[in-house]
Amino acid sequence: MLKIVYAGTPEFALPCLKKINDSDMEIIAVLTQPDRPAGRGMKIKESPIKKYAKDNQLLYFQPEKIDEEFTKSIKELRPDVLIVAAYGIILPKHFIDIFPKKAFNIHASILPKWRGAAPIQRAIMYGDNQIGVTIMEVVEKLDAGNIFLIKSFDRDPNKTSGDYFEILSNDGADLMMQHLNNIQLGLRIESIVQVEEAVTYAKKISKSEAYLNLENKAENIVNTVMALNPFPVSRISFRQKEVKIFHAELTNISSVENQPGSINLSDDLLVATSDFYIKINSIQISGGHTLTGKDFIKNYQLKPAENFSNV
């Protein structure tokens, strides 16, 4: 029976932890980030992984950093394998080296593309046709380990980052279970080295990226809207109030003869960009409820002469 240490923090890491806990493998320790302030009230909140560990009587730790003393305490538990999923704390070599059957990570991209903090969001933002998840070996250099398994598929432009966080967390859990079963059975496992020339980086999403520029091309704007849902959510301005755009899609209706931000009141809420109108499907004005585009037209009695604008 494999003795596993599991390191993860957000919801993305939950499906794999649950699958391992439901299997014949043994979770001997769970690592997750310390409780942090979160939400509007910035109340101290425990991670989803900590809550699951507590609810299922799993031994858990919340170290601020992985020092040699902590490493020694985990080594004394005599682990076989370390599994990592969106843990959020750098793992030093002296810690990785204590696992005789090595350490493996679920990374939400088709490596070597989109190493780094925001792989799902960057793949959508840059309009990738394919999206996927990779099982790789954890090494000292971030996201640079050998690749064991990849699942990739065509990206649906109607799905947001939030949709893909859920899809890829479940796909990643299935792939990791396949990999762990192979290890437990003692099978010969092949891996491939990442091609460094093909590496791209997915830097962390900043709140400033939420502010859309309606003078950009429609495809870029829609990709950004879908990438930044659920966080930080794209924003423009209407009637001198900030509005959040949660979901939008491309149209083939040219808007080159109209000012970016101008409104086309057909059956849907269409907004001009530098080349085509975009169709807004989900929108919320500051202080209001989240509405469909059609309900936004009706509730706020939009007029053709009105415009959206950049914040």
TrEMBL record:
- Any GO molecular function: methionyl-tRNA formyltransferase activity
* Keyword tags: Protein biosynthesis, Transferase
Q: Which reaction(s) does the protein catalyse, per the Swiss-Prot or TrEMBL entry?
A: L-methionyl-tRNA(fMet) + (6R)-10-formyltetrahydrofolate = N-formyl-L-methionyl-tRNA(fMet) + (6S)-5,6,7,8-tetrahydrofolate + H(+)
Domain (Formyl transferase C-terminal): residue spans on this chain? 204-300
The lineage's top-level taxon is Bacteria
> Which NCBIfam families would you find in this protein's record?
fmt (TIGR00460)
Q: Name one Pfam family in it.
A: Formyl_trans_N
Cite the Formyl transferase N-terminal domain residue spans from the record. Answer: 4-176
Q: Which organism is it from?
A: Methylophilales bacterium MBRS-H7
Protein known as = Methionyl-tRNA formyltransferase
| EC category | transferase
Binding residues for (6S)-5,6,7,8-tetrahydrofolate, per the UniProt record?
Answer: S109, I110, L111, P112
Q: Which InterPro entries match?
A: Fmt, Formyl_trans_C, Formyl_transf_N, Formyl_transf_N_sf, Formyl_transferase-like_C_sf, Met-tRNA-FMT_C, Met-tRNA-FMT_N
EC number(s): the record gives 2.1.2.9
Quote the function comment for this protein. Answer: Attaches a formyl group to the free amino group of methionyl-tRNA(fMet). The formyl group appears to play a dual role in the initiator identity of N-formylmethionyl-tRNA by promoting its recognition by IF2 and preventing the misappropriation of this tRNA by the elongation apparatus.
- Please give the family membership noted in the entry: Belongs to the Fmt family.
